[in-house]
Amino acid sequence: MAGFVKKFMDFIGIEETEMDDELYAEEAYEEETIRDDNVLDIGNRGKRKSASTNGNVISIPSQAQMKMIVYHPISYEDTQNIIDNLKSRKPVIVNMEELEIDCAQRILDFMAGAIYALNGTIYKVSRGIFVVAPANCDVIGNGEASL
pTM of this prediction? Predict the structure, then answer.
């Protein structure tokens, strides 16, 4: 079969050189030697060496400390700061107990729209206190359900 391919390549005018074969063989060898021990083949997924057997130290990255912001809005214009923190993936506790009902309702409506757009959640803690959480935060408690 190889003779047929060689004759066909000679007929077309393509010559196979030994230098090309050597170059390809060297590249294949280099790829095999560069391969990292931590890379697993699909067939060897369940057969990975543990860290204690090969002497490597594995560092587990710690999670960044989560910050929760407590905010007391004074007017409707303060809502933008609450939403900016929410867009930065920080949960916010909003205390609107000292606001007039109309202003508190406008702020709550604005926050509810932003929460919907960001796939977050809003929880009512008490009459004028709400927890606004982005999608990366879960709020767990036995208080009232989310709005």
Answer: 0.53
